[in-house]
């Protein structure tokens, strides 16, 4: 696997080595050994999958301490715009984001470390999206930031009038009004 660094340290895109022939393709979608060596040592404990139609936007989600999560995500059908937002107070990249298009054709994956909010918008007619998480889902620890927070400057590539959000995501606070418990420089992996 090739690890592509982004403008925010720790947030990476993973490009697999794909073998194709007349029968189709094959690639290794995850190797614990390679991930630990090339990205960071981690232990994923939960896999999730969602199916959504065009215009669905999910996020910007995170889990609060002590249940904060890292995610390794990919789109196995269709296309999504996937986004990670730095929510570590004091970070030189606080409030900045990385956006990457994940598709069934490019097979890329996106690693979102702890201390980041995560969300995506479905760009295709339908999308099937998979997540690996290094902490179990803890509903009491749920957190989120408004997807359509203009201060974040995210171009979701879905017109706002076509966006489909959950009731919960629709009413989340903007980043400037959010109470966060992530501090830059704090080791979130201990």
Automatic annotation (TrEMBL):
Superkingdom, taxonomy of origin: Bacteria
Enzyme Commission no: 5.1.3.13
Pathway: Carbohydrate biosynthesis; dTDP-L-rhamnose biosynthesis
GO MF entry, a single one: dTDP-4-dehydrorhamnose 3,5-epimerase activity
Cellular component, GO annotation: cytosol
Swiss-Prot/TrEMBL catalytic activity: dTDP-4-dehydro-6-deoxy-alpha-D-glucose = dTDP-4-dehydro-beta-L-rhamnose
Keywords linked to the UniProt accession: Isomerase
Site residues by UniProt (Participates in a stacking interaction with the thymidine ring of dTDP-4-oxo-6-deoxyglucose): 137
Active site, per annotation: 61, 131
InterPro entries in the record: RmlC-like, RmlC-like_jellyroll, RmlC_Cupin_sf
EC class of the enzyme, as a word: isomerase
GO terms classed as biological process: dTDP-rhamnose biosynthetic process; polysaccharide biosynthetic process
Gene3D superfamilies: Jelly Rolls (2.60.120.10)
CDD domains assigned: cupin_RmlC (cd00438)
Subunit structure: Homodimer.
Membership in a protein family: Belongs to the dTDP-4-dehydrorhamnose 3,5-epimerase family.
PANTHER family in alphabetical order: DTDP-6-DEOXY-D-GLUCOSE-3,5 EPIMERASE, THYMIDINE DIPHOSPHO-4-KETO-RHAMNOSE 3,5-EPIMERASE
Function: Catalyzes the epimerization of the C3' and C5'positions of dTDP-6-deoxy-D-xylo-4-hexulose, forming dTDP-6-deoxy-L-lyxo-4-hexulose.
Record's protein name: dTDP-4-dehydrorhamnose 3,5-epimerase
């Amino acid at each position: 696997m090739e690890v592509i660094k982004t403008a925010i340290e720790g947030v990476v895109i993973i490009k697999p080595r794909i073998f194709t022939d007349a029968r189709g393709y094959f690639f290794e979608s995850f190797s614990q050994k390679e991930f630990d060596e090339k990205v960071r040592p981690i232990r994923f404990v939960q896999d999730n999958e969602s199916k959504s139609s065009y215009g669905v936007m999910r996020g910007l989600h995170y889990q609060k301490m002590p249940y904060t999560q890292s995610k390794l995500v990919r789109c196995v059908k269709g296309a999504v715009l996937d986004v990670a937002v730095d929510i570590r107070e004091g970070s030189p990249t606080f409030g900045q984001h990385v956006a990457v298009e994940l598709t069934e054709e490019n097979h890329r994956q996106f690693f979102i470390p702890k201390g980041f909010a995560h969300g995506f918008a479905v760009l295709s007619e339908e999308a099937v999206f998979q997540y690996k998480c290094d902490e179990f889902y803890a509903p009491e620890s749920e957190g989120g930031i408004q997807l359509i927070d203009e201060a974040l400057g995210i171009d979701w590539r879905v017109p706002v009038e076509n966006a489909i959000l959950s009731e919960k995501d629709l009413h989340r606070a903007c980043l400037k009004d959010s109470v966060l418990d992530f501090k830059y420089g704090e080791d979130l992996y201990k």
